[in-house]
Amino acid sequence: MPDSLKLDTSVPHSARMWNYLLGGKDHYPVDQAAADRITAVFPGMVDITRHSRAFIGRTVRLLAGERGIRQFLDIGTGLPTADNTHEIAQRADPSCRIVYVDNDPLVLVHAKALLTSTPEGACDYIDADVRDPDRILREAARTLDLSRPVGLMLMGILGLVADYDEARAIVRRLMDALPPGSYLGLNDGTDTDPAYVRALRPHNASSGAVPYTPRSPQQIEGLFEGLELLEPGVESCSRWRLEASPFATPPEVAVFGGVAYKRG
Ligand SMILES: C[S@@+](CC[C@H](N)C(=O)[O-])C[C@H]1O[C@@H](n2cnc3c(N)ncnc32)[C@H](O)[C@@H]1O
Fold first, then answer.
1. Best substitution site from 157, 171, 187 to test ligand 1's pocket, by max atoms within 8 Å of Cβ?
2. Using DSSP, how many helices (H) and how many strands (E) does the chain show?
C-alpha cells in the first residue's frame, strides 16, 4: 500500500474532525474525542463548520453564477459532504471543471464521490500538499486551462500552515500562476472568540494533530494582498453576503473569509 493510502487512526486529522463536526460518518474515535474536547470548551465550533460550508456555497454560486467562472481549484477539499464544490458549480453551468486537492489519505479513499462530474464538465482529484503549489499547478493543468480564469478556493486550510509568511507565499505563488480575471475565495478560523483560542490551545499542544492557528481578521485580509476584495471585504462567514432571509443578522462566528478578484 503506498504511504499516501496509510490511515493513521492514532492521532486526530482535521478532515475527519471536520466531518464529525458536520454530522458525517467518515471519522474515527480519535477524531470524535478530539472534536468533543474542543466543543466541551467551545460549543460554537459546530457553528464554525456550518457557517464555513455555507460560505463555500455562496462563494461558488457567486463565482459560477454572476461572475462566469467555469474552472475551480479547491485545495483542502475535505471529505465529501452535501453540496461539494463541483455540484454547486455544475448546477450553475454543467460545463464547469473542478480540481480537488487534499493530502489526507481518507479523503483520497473517498475521492470517488468527488469525481461525479456532469458529462459536459470534468472533475479531478490530486493527492498533494498545499506546501507544494508548483506540483499542484502542474497536475491541475491536466484538467484546467490555466490560461483562462480560475476560482481558487482555500477554505479552512491555511490555519494548518502555522507560519504566516509561508501561508502568504503559498497564496501568492498560486495566484501568480493564474491569469487576470481569476478569483481567490478563502476562509479560516479567527482569534476573535477567546473560547475558541482557549479550546485550541490543548488540542494544538498535545492531541498529536497538525496544529491549527487561528489568525486575526487583519491577517486573513493580508492573505488577499494584491487582489481586489469584493464587497463586503473580509467578514465573519456568518455575515458575508447573506442571501435574502426573513431572519435577523446572525451573530458573528470566529471564521472569517472573503472573495477577491485578480485584475489584469
Ligand atoms: C478544516 S478542513 C476544511 C475542509 C473544507 N475545505 C471545508 O471548508 O469544509 C481542512 C482540510 O485541509 C486538508 N489539509 C490540511 N493540511 C493540508 C495540506 N498541508 N495540504 C493539503 N490539504 C491539507 C485537510 O485534510 C482537510 O481536508
1. 157
2. 9, 8
* CATH dotted code for 48-242+249-261: 3.40.50.150
Taking each helix axis as running N to C, give the angle between helix 45-61 and helix 29-41, from 0 to 180 degrees, rounded to the nearest 10: 100
pLDDT in tens, 16-45: 999 999 999 999 999 999 999 999 999 999
Task: Tell which atom from ligand 1 comes closest to the C-alpha of 131.
Answer: 19
DSSP 215: B
Q: How far apart are CA 152 and CA 158, in angstroms?
A: 13
Domain ranges of the chain: 48-242+249-261
pLDDT band at 2 (very low <50, low <70, confident <90, very high): low
Q: What is the pTM of this model?
A: 0.97
Question: Residue 256: which H helix or E strand, with range?
Answer: strand 255-261
Q: How far is the CA of 248 from the centre of ligand 1 (A)?
A: 31
Using CB distances shorter than 6 Å, the residues near ligand 1 are 14-15, 18, 52-53, 56, 76-78, 102-104, 107, 129-131, 155-157, 160
Per-residue model confidence as pLDDT tens digits over 163-189: 999 999 999 999 999 999 999 999 999
Q: Sign of the CA dihedral 142, 74, 152, 215?
A: negative
Among 21, 102, 107, 187, which residue has the most ligand 1 atoms within 8 Å of its CB, making it the best to mutate?
102
